[in-house]
């Protein structure tokens, strides 16, 4: 009976550790999602077109088509979307001429807004 209690205790410790790991993962996803939502809000306030936002989203999804090994796909998509939105030139309030100048891109689907 004592051995059974020890085994149950070990099992509960493992479950608790798994729950804590999942809690931390969800916390990181929540933080990344909040960052992305803040960037989207800033772009909306700058009156970015729906078309430009759609291109950013499609570019993000295209670059995350093949998931990286060992990286959660949801987090990867959020991280890439945050990078795409952060790179949006409207957020840096550059003059219109600079915002429209072409830049060399490694991925033809990556756009600048």
UniProtKB/TrEMBL annotation:
Question: Which InterPro entries does the protein's record reference?
Answer: CCD48
**Entry keywords, A to Z:** Coiled coil
Coiled-coil residue windows = 2-46
**Source superkingdom:** Eukaryota
Q: Which Pfam families match?
A: CCD48
Q: What is this protein called?
A: EFCC1 protein
Organism source for this protein?
Answer: Oriolus oriolus
